[in-house]
From TrEMBL, chain A:
GO MF annotations, alphabetized: electron-transferring-flavoprotein dehydrogenase activity
InterPro entries, alphabetized: FAD/NAD-bd_sf, FixC-like, FixC-like_C
Record flagged with keyword Zinc: no
The family this protein is said to belong to: Belongs to the ETF-QO/FixC family.
Protein's organism: Sulfoacidibacillus ferrooxidans
Keywords annotated in UniProt: FAD, Flavoprotein, Oxidoreductase
PANTHER family to which the protein is assigned, alphabetical: ELECTRON TRANSFER FLAVOPROTEIN-QUINONE OXIDOREDUCTASE YDIS-RELATED (PTHR43624:SF2)
Protein name: Electron transfer flavoprotein-ubiquinone oxidoreductase
Length: 435, 93
């Protein structure tokens, strides 16, 4: 290993945050090294699978002409499920194609592509290497220690982009351990299915794709499921708050199998063959869990800094954007030669002025709303009552509609624990969603 | 319905000789009332063995999610990453 060399920047983690940072700095001519613990970038990573255009386009214009993407998303569905039924909402629009809004993707291909782009721009990429600690000189971070022999590396600045299990963030002392209600555990399967079948079942032409998210049917735990179409596979998964998982004593993969049996999902998954099982944490602490973003000789990006908008399942784009901001601030600092907290503050400023900060701020109350309110209400009783109400309204059985409406309303109100509670819940929910 | 064994079979691992997951104090597990690591781990890594009075750790199956690091109520699990290049390698992600 290049032990004695001194770099302009060391980036830990070749996820979207790290690769974005490495790419931009390398392109600007900085001498950077990108370190990844996996056999290759993406080896350790999973996600649901939606990649948004705008934030990656800001880094690599027209990336879609070369990036390994699955399908172009033209329809997004939200399903509110009870055990046997579902109320469905969705939007399909040809306008999502031009310009394209988002694609589905798979991390193993995507992360390798992105990290290779950084390498081609001049970044030195080192894989199969775990960074085990930061090296300090006084207060200042000056390098990293790796699990290789003679594996110490030195740089003006270390970019910590090591994801949700950020052991380095802890080593830096910038954040404490997450608590079980600040993270969700998602389990996922990639399910193979012939292309034609996927296109028939989801009503697709050519390269079009559909995303479906579902709430409810998670055994009363706060959580969300997803089903996304890829070229010849489906990405199917469900994530629930770790604190709820602990309370309910459910095995995550049994929850997944249970959800698969729902009649609306079972039909779509039927005949598919599971090619891969996976699990990963999602940071869901939101605005209040974001640690300080930079200090003397270091910066922290992406999941490691809790930069995830879980309401809109946006994470990769926030990670890439924070990686880009970190890189831009380092390029500035490179010109002045000041890598202290003050010299690197351009990163914090950029994040603060951007949609990253604004979006997370908008939902800042949601984390407390979800941890404080009874998840069995929001994620079980209300979805059930809503489905029952829809069922009653649509069932033609001789009961007058006005009576049905009363019964339906009563059912929903009862599920919420009375009218006052429902109003309170609605108001709290609204506040949580609107900062 | 596919079992956890079948699910784990879909994953490629490069197993290290030494465990990256260590129970800090088996005595703490003995007195742990919930033993919830047996349930929340998505890869069934932890098993309480009554006879031996200890938590066994099938680290070979670990999918490196990090849940046990945060989920064990007494933080009794020392959690680090497997050696570089070892552990789980996804094919799709
Ligand atoms: C189930 C699921 C569904 C999701 N769905 C979506 C979605 O549809 N759309 C979306 O935009 N986002 C989604 N997200 C969120 C998104 O995946 C993350 O926000 C994003 O990947 C964060 O990027 P990152 O670069 O910060 O971290 P990561 O992608 O986690 O990358 C961190 C990298 O660092 C490496 N690493 C860690 N520690 C070390 C170390 N010490 N030494 C060396 N290397 C190290 C890891 O191996 C990894 O490659 C989802 C997440 C999950 C889990
Ligand atoms: S939950 Fe923690 S303390 Fe309890 S048995 Fe498992 S590892 Fe031991
Ligand atoms: S990291 Fe995840 S898979 Fe590995 S032992 Fe802990 S809970 Fe189980």
């Amino acid at each position: 290993m290049v032990a004695t060399e001194h770099f302009d920047a060391i980036i830990v983690g070749a996820g979207p945050a790290g690769s974005a940072a490495a790419y931009i700095m390398a392109k600007a001519g900085l001498n950077v090294v990108l370190i990844e613990r996996g056999e290759f970038p993406g080896a350790k990573n999973i996600f649901g699978g939606v990649i948004y255009r705008k934030q990656l386009e800001d880094i690599i214009p027209e990336f879609w002409k070369e990036a390994p993407l699955e399908r172009q998303v033209i329809e997004q569905r939200l399903w509110i499920l009870s055990d046997q039924a579902g109320v469905t909402i969705g939007h399909r629009n040809e306008a999502f194609k031009e310009p394209n809004n988002c694609w589905t993707g798979l991390r193993v291909k995507f992360d390798q592509w992105f990290a290779t782009k950084a390498e081609q721009a001049g970044s030195l990429n080192i894989y199969e290497t775990v960074v085990i600690d930061v090296i300090r000189e006084g207060e200042k971070v000056v390098g990293v220690r790796t699990d290789r022999d003679q594996g110490d590396l030195y740089a003006n600045v270390v970019v910590v982009a090591d994801g949700v299990n950020s052991l380095l963030g802890k080593a830096l002392g910038v954040h404490r351990e997450w608590s079980p209600n600040e993270v969700s555990l998602a389990v996922k399967e990639v399910i193979a299915m012939p292309k034609e079948k996927i296109m028939d079942r989801f009503n697709l032409e050519g390269n079009e794709g559909v995303t479906t998210e579902f709430v409810g049917n998670t055994m009363g735990m706060a959580g969300l499921g997803f089903l996304y179409t890829n070229q010849d596979t489906l990405s199917f998964g469900v994530g629930v708050m770790v604190s709820d998982l602990k309370k309910k004593r459910v095995k995550p993969y049994e929850l997944l199998e249970g959800v698969k049996q729902h009649p609306m999902l079972r039909r779509l998954l039927q005949g598919g063959e599971t090619k891969e099982y996976a699990g990963h944490l999602i940071p869901e602490g939101g605005f209040h869990s974001i640690p300080p973003l930079s200090g003397d000789g270091w910066m922290i990006c992406g999941d490691a800094a809790q930069l995830v908008n879980f309401v809109h399942r946006e994470g990769t784009n926030l990670a890439m954007t924070s990686g880009r901001f970190a890189a831009e601030a380092i390029i500035e600092a490179h010109e002045t030669g000041d890598f202290s907290r003050v010299g690197l503050a351009g990163y914090d400023r950029r994040v603060k002025e951007s949609f990253v900060h604004k979006d997370l701020k908008k939902y800042k109350g949601l984390h407390h709303f979800l941890s404080d309110s009874d998840p069995s209400l929001t994620f079980d009783k209300l979805p059930k009552a809503l489905n029952e109400a829809a069922y009653q309204m649509l069932l033609v059985d001789g009961v007058p509609k006005s009576d049905k409406q009363k019964i339906a309303m009563r059912g929903v109100t009862q599920a919420a624990g009375g009218l006052m509670n429902m109003v309170k819940l609605g108001a709290q929910g609204w506040r949580a969603m609107n900062g | 319905m596919s079992s956890i064994a079948e699910k784990l079979y879909t994953i490629r691992y490069k197993v290290d000789e030494t465990s990256h997951l260590i129970i800090k104090d088996q005595d703490v597990c003995l007195h742990c009332e919930t033993k919830e690591c047996q349930d929340f781990c998505p890869a069934d890594v932890y098993h309480w063995m009554d006879k031996e009075s200890m938590t066994s750790v099938a680290f070979e199956n670990c999918i490196e999610c990090g849940t046990c690091r945060i989920g064990c109520p007494t933080y009794n699990i020392e959690w680090v990453y497997p050696k570089g290049g070892h552990g789980i390698t996804y094919k799709f992600g």
